[in-house]
Each structure stands twice: as C-alpha cells, then as structure tokens.
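Posting this for the archive.
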Amino acid sequence: MSETQGISDRSMSRAGDATADMPQLVLTIAGLTACRSHGGARFCLSMGRLDLASLQPAALVGPSGSGKSTLLDVLGLVMTPTRLAAFMFFPSSEQPVDLAKLIEKRHEAGLTDMRRRYLGYMPQTGGLLPFLSVGENIRMSARLNDRLDEAYLDQLAQLLDLPAALMRRFPKDLSIGQRQRVSLARAMAHRPRLLLADEPTASLDAVTAGAVTGLLLDLSPRFGITPVIATHDERLFGRDGVRRLHVEARAGAEPNTVDAKVQI
C-alpha cells in the first residue's frame, strides 16, 4: 500500500457516504484563493466550486496573464493555495483522497506520490529532455510508475503518428509539431487520471494546432484520461462535450494588485 493510499483510507473514512450519490468525478475543489507576488506586485486567483467530471475535457480560456497557469499549478499540486476550503481527488477504483488535508499538513511525500501516479503534464514547449531519445522520453513516466506497457505505448505512438524510426531520434531533430505529439505521448504513457496541458498549441501554426488539439481531446478520454487544457484560443475548443471555464483578470482595489476569477 502506498503512503498516499494509507492517508486516503484514514482521512477519507467518511467520503464514501458523502460521495455515493455524486456523478463520477475526477476532482472537486472549492473556496480557492491562490496568490503570487513578484517585484512588489501581487496576483490573486479565486474560484468558487469546481466539480470536474471524469472523461469530460475542460478548457481554461483566457488571455496571457489571466491566471490559467496558476490554476494548473494548483491542480498539479506544485503550488500551495493561500486559501482552500476543499480539494478532493477521485482515483478511478480507489478511495477518494483528501488533497486539502495533505496540503494543510504539508505532506510532501504524499503530494509527490499523487503527482507521480495520477497526473500527466504537457508544457507549452514540450519539455522533452534533450539528452534522451524520443522513445526514452515517452517511456520515462511509465518507468517511474512501474507501468511500462509496450503494447499500449505502441498503440499510442501509432495513433499519434510517431513511427518506430522516430523513436531513435532526439528532440532537437524534431519539428515543433512532432515535439508536441511526443510530449502528449509522454504525458499519457503511464495512463494518468488527469492530464494538465499548459498552452500546448501556442507555438504551433493554425493547421498543426488544430491537429494537436484534436488528438488531445480525442485520445485522452479514449484511454481513461481527463484532460484540462489552458488556452488563449477558444476557437480550438468549440466542439460539443468540451467544458469551457473562462479566467478573467482585472486591476485589484490596492495598488500593484491583480485579481482574477474563474467563471464556473
């Protein structure tokens, strides 16, 4: 039993009764305030209650600097909120995990375990390690989780148009579009419960951006993964079935402050 699972069993003994009648969720988070300070300026993002349904893609829509990445950092367990009323995570076949409790207790080992096992991340620039081949980059998260499934990875590579010959090459030899498809494969390699993508099409031309968006939206739910994508281009996510959450920022009441809010 993992350390996180042990905490889950102890801290969530009442969760079964509370969530028995709820639709299948990936997470629920409520009463969030997350603040950053830099150079005398202060930025604060707030959000009411968000219930994220399993396998329903969600797009965080807003201009640069509106707070999309801040929310992804909170969901990705790499930023400690200033205020948090509730934060529950629902693995597909295990007890719910009270992330708010882990954060309150500063349980870094438990949070690290959650990130490793259940979260996938696709950064804006791909984030591939230059000293590893394409194949090694893709397999990295699966190896770290002891979930290396070659048949699944072969299927994933085929669907993402990543031929076997490409697996021996290095990131510097790839086009931008190829790097983003490799980044998506790596994020999905260990079959995470939740995939967080931060502006994955920002550096792509319109045609390639549409192709990468289509792959991200189509393939993630197909393999049991729920994607949350930060984007400044709402047009890419206009299809039915995509939940759009608008993030808006405005000048705060105090000098050198910005207040942002997620519209649920």
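The first strand starts at residue 25 and ends at 38. Residues 3-263 form a domain with the Rossmann fold fold (CATH 3.40.50.300).
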